[in-house]
Automatic annotation (TrEMBL):
Domain of life assignment: Eukaryota
Region annotated Disordered, chain positions: 1-34, 54-92
Name this polypeptide is given: Uncharacterized protein
Keyword Coiled coil listed: yes
Chain coiled-coil ranges: 100-134, 203-237
Protein source organism: Lentinula guzmanii
Length: 323
């Protein structure tokens, strides 16, 4: 479950100058105290949202592992592009882990900044409480002194109130900047999550294709072993036929002379009869092997090159500093 993007709307408190009325400083002081309490409440809410965002990033930092491909008795070193495939085995996990770590560092920095602002607001609240006591004492002294001492009391009070107003304006400005920063981090986090899910889905598709190719290679190896066995059986039958003794003729003639005269002719006839079949079988087998190797090379290389481009694009996007 992902958090919704927070909406921050912090406006700077309007600057007000106390009038010469004797009760106006107390009213202004109460109004600023109320505004400061509102800022403190908004800051507490942002701290809670930042903590939730930090927890979410920590949960997402662990990349889900994909089950490995079952090993087969195939020599991948003889296949084209095998070294490229081995170098990009863990590219997805490294890119996703780096993106999650960067987002986590940004959230931790934001949380520390919000803590500092919270401490500053607490300090100002303490100052406001102290100044309220001072204002009450000043008002009591003002009532005792009368109209003659009004200007000497109001002027220092105006300076202190203006100073507090400036501090509150600075806090409001900082909170607005932090709000923009949090919104930008949410956008970056959503983009990183979307790209990470796309990479994982692409990896699963490519692994399914590789499994299909492995099955085809295994089937091809079985067919080649079967063809080899048939060729060996034919060769053995031919050798047995050649070594079989010739039956004696019914007519009276010399067998030794007959064998010596016809041996070369029979051997040449058998060789010429068997040779086309052997050549045809060998040519067909060679063409099948070459065609399968070309298809396997083209399929693997296109997918591995696409994977390499995706990893390079993600790496370039994550290495650029935030705007």
């Amino acid at each position: 479950m992902s958090l919704g993007k927070p909406s921050f709307n912090i406006s700077k408190p309007k600057s007000k100058r106390p009038r010469s009325n004797s009760m106006q400083p107390t009213l202004d002081q109460e109004g600023k105290t109320h505004e400061l309490q509102q800022l403190a409440s908004e800051l507490d809410q942002k701290l809670a949202e930042a903590a939730a965002l930090k927890k979410e990033v920590e949960n997402k930092s662990s990349v889900p592992s994909v089950p490995p491909i079952a090993s087969r008795d195939v020599d991948f070193e003889t296949l084209p592009g095998s070294s490229k495939r081995r170098r990009t085995t863990n590219g997805y996990e490294d890119t996703a882990a780096a993106s999650a770590a960067q987002a986590k560092e940004e959230i931790i920095g934001l949380h520390d900044t919000l803590q500092e602002v919270s401490e500053r607001v607490s300090t100002i609240e303490n100052n406001i409480a102290t100044q309220e006591i001072e204002v009450q004492e000043v008002m009591q002294a003002y009532c005792g002194q009368g109209e003659a001492g009004e200007s000497s009391i109001v002027n220092p009070l105006e300076a202190r109130v203006n100073h507090i107003q400036d501090q509150m304006n600075d806090i409001a400005t900082n909170l607005n900047e932090l709000s923009e920063w949090i919104a930008e981090i949410y956008q970056n986090n959503d983009s990183i999550t979307e790209r990470h899910e796309g990479i994982i889905a692409k990896k699963e598709e490519e692994e399914a294709e590789i499994r299909k190719l492995l099955l085809r290679i295994e089937e091809h190896e079985q067919n080649r072993a079967k063809d080899k066995s048939e060729i060996e059986a034919l060769s053995a039958a031919l050798m047995a036929y050649c070594e079989k003794p010739v039956s004696p003729p019914s007519s009276p003639f010399d067998p030794e002379t007959m064998v010596s005269d016809m041996e070369e002719q029979i051997r040449e006839l058998v060789r010429n009869a068997i040779r086309p079949h052997i050549e045809e079988t060998r040519t067909a087998l060679s063409q099948d092997l070459q065609k399968h190797d070309s298809e396997l090379y083209g399929s693997l290389w296109s997918k591995l090159s696409m994977t390499n481009k995706i990893i390079a694009a993600v790496s370039e996007a994550t290495s650029r500093p935030p705007m």
